[in-house]
Amino acid sequence: MAFRDLRDYIKFLKEKNKIIEINDELSPDLEIAYLTRKATYAHLPALLFNNVKGYPGWRVITNIFNSINVFYELFNTQKLETVSENFMRDFLGEIPVTLLQKAKSLIEFSKMGKILPKSKKADFHEEKLSLLNFPALKTWPKDAGKFFTFSITITKDPETNVHNLSVYRIQILNDKEGIMHWQALKRSSMSAYKYKKRGITRVPVAIVNGVDPIVAFVAASPVPPGLDKYLFAGILRGEGVDVYELDNGILVPSHAESVIEGYVDLEDLRLEGPFGDHLGYYTPPDYYPAFKLEKVYIRDNPIFHATSVGKPPLEDAWIGKAVERIFLPFLRMIVPELVDMNLPEYGLFTGIGIFSIRKMYPGHAKKVMMSLWGTGQLSLLKMIIIVDEDVNVHDINQVMYAISTTVDPKRDILIIENTITDSLDHTVPNPPLGSKIGIDATRKFKEECGREWPEEVKDDVEVERRLGSLWERIRAQYHP
């Protein structure tokens, strides 16, 4: 379901009675973040704050991604895997090898025109504003200051011109400067590395706030490097994103509520943090590059989109579950033996991943571990558990049973030291370097355990057939 912009989505939420408007005067200093967390934990819908203390004319919206049901509605399906499956069916056909196939490929390619970004006039206009004019939130009492928490940082790869949209927290320092918290493995950070290799230390950047929900979701998603996020957003929306080119060459959504044009100075590192993050702890201060403001563009009566992070499950948990489902078919292209995966919300998405596979040969589970650790953001997973295809990865009891009945710790647990981890992980001594654990909880081949695997207990088929109707009568007495 495509929405023109954030305002169009708010109108939809109002019509569906899925938004709570709050007219009490509330401060972006702790108060809005507090109520946002309470709302998410209580399974309440989006919150629209109409009276923001100290920021007349602004409204703040939070808790947009308040449950997995939001994504079912956005994509009009109860099975989010179909979103990417449909794209793969429609656009990723077989490689054409005959003239007929080439003609068919051209027809298929023509469909891409609908989902490509489209140049459109901007709804925003330039204003003489500073970073201090935005109602950025202070989320937790010991945060270093106010942060943009759901603003979208847009950069352009200097080699491919592919645009990247990502959600990084940005600490506000003063009217013209902030700190860009892009970590080593993030796409914008990798683009910055390419700029630096070319001798360019000022990376053109746009900070965008207040876009339609699918563009916001894509910005928060680990889309594979090389794939333009505008294109991916067009795929999910079913139509291309309207874009406008800034003076610095960055394309931004034409209907955004606000746009900050500037650059990140790779030579100007500032101490950022602490910040209470999604792990439920304060991230210790560390050095990140400074953002320098050049121009501000804004719509009339602007709306500021923010989120509040902390112990799960908050908005990032539901974004993560949607990512898990939508990206599963893409991951199966890389790891074809993969059946299903579960990135538990309490496992923090970079902490624990559970994967089921069709095991075909000895050592197969460890081979899959290596493949997963070599794939995009899954490289940050601290623990990978591999189970057989008949284990429901979403049933933690089944997973625990598999671990208890298939794992010999010496043989089946793999420890990898001194490798990349989440930069926010406070448990490791020198982030982003840490260790990983892999658990092979699959049934073992003879070559793996030195003997035949024991036979599992099963009911006698004839007894099951003979007593089936009696069992149904017995059960019906208590569950009519």
Overall description:
- With 480 residues, the protein is of the alpha+beta class.
- The chain folds into two domains: 300 residues, Pnp Oxidase, Chain A, CATH 2.30.110; 115 residues, UbiD C-terminal domain-like (3-Layer(aba) Sandwich).
- It has 14 helices and 23 strands.
- The strands form five sheets. Strands 5, 6, 7, 8, 9, 10, 11, 14 and 17 form a nine-stranded antiparallel beta sheet that branches. Strands 19-20-21-23-22 form a five-stranded mixed beta sheet.
- The longest helix is centred in the last third of the chain and has 20 residues.
- It is globular.
- The two termini are 41 Å apart.
- About 3% of the residues have low confidence.
Short description:
This protein has 480 residues and is of the alpha+beta class. The protein has helices at residues 6-15, 31-41, 68-74, 81-91, 99-110, 187-197, 213-219, 229-237, 315-334, 364-373, 396-406, 409-412, 446-449, 461-478; strands at 19-22, 46-49, 59-62, 118-119, 125-127, 147-148, 152-156, 163-167, 170-172, 177-180, 202-209, 242-245, 251-253, 258-272, 275-276, 282-283, 286-298, 303-305, 338-342, 352-357, 383-388, 413-420, 433-441. It contains 14 helices and 23 strands.
The first-level CATH class name of the largest domain = Mainly Beta
**Overall domain count:** 2
Radius of gyration: 25 Å
Mean pLDDT over all positions: 91
Report the structural category: alpha+beta
Largest sheet: 9 strands, antiparallel
Approximately how much beta-strand content do the residues carry?
Answer: 25-35%
CATH topology of the largest domain: Pnp Oxidase, Chain A
Q: How many β-strands, per DSSP?
A: 23
Query: Stretches where pLDDT falls below 50 for ≥5 residues?
Result: 94-107
- Shape by Cα distribution: globular
| CATH architectural label of the largest domain | Roll
Q: Give helix % range.
A: 25-40%
Instruction: Spell out the CATH superfamily of the largest domain.
Output: Electron Transport, Fmn-binding Protein, Chain A
